């Protein structure tokens, strides 16, 4: 079952998920509240849908079309792209 967070519109971050994460969340949604880095974002998303926890641990995060690590300081109006691992050729 997919979960679409319904938070207040203040301090809104846009989230886009792909592939298997779309089984757990809407493809695009907004997340309200301060999130400082990717670790905090993973925890927030896991809190919204615990079944996505293991998958989120192996996902990569991107902002402004570039991959980021946990040292990147997320800003409230960032659009964050979350990409799970994939295989193929």
Core attributes:
18% helix; globular; Ubiquitin-like (UB roll); single chain; five-stranded mixed β-sheet; alpha+beta; 89 residues
Task: Furnish the topology, listing elements before pairings.
Blueprint: E1 12-17, E2 28-32, H1 38-48, H2 53-57, E3 60-63, E4 66-68, E5 79-83
Parallel strand pairs: 1-5
Antiparallel strand pairs: 1-2, 3-4, 3-5
Distinct helical segment count: 2
Give the percentage of residues in beta strands. Answer: 25-35%
Radius of gyration: 12 Å
Q: How many structurally independent domains?
A: 1
CATH first level: which class?
Alpha Beta
Side by side, the strands of the main sheet go 2-1-5-3-4
Based on the coordinates given, report the CATH architecture: Roll
Q: Taking all residues together, what is the mean pLDDT? A: 88
Fold and architecture overview:
This protein is an alpha+beta fold. It has two helices and five strands; from the N terminus they run ββααβββ. The chain has a single domain, classed as Ubiquitin-like (UB roll) (Roll). A hairpin with a 2-residue loop joins strand 3 and strand 4. The longest helix is centred in the middle third of the chain and has 11 residues, at 38-48. The relative contact order is 0.26. The model has no long low-confidence stretch (mean pLDDT 88).
Quick overview:
The protein has two helices and five strands, in the order ββααβββ. With 89 residues, it is an alpha+beta fold.
């Amino acid at each position: 079952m997919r979960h679409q967070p319904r938070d207040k519109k203040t301090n809104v971050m846009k989230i886009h998920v792909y592939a298997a994460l779309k089984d757990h969340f809407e493809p695009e949604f907004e997340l309200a509240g301060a999130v400082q880095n990717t670790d905090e974002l993973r925890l927030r998303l896991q809190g919204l849908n615990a079944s996505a926890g293991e998958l989120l641990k192996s996902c990569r995060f991107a902002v402004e079309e570039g991959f980021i690590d946990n040292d990147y300081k997320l800003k409230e109006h960032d659009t964050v792209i979350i990409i799970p691992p994939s295989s193929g050729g």
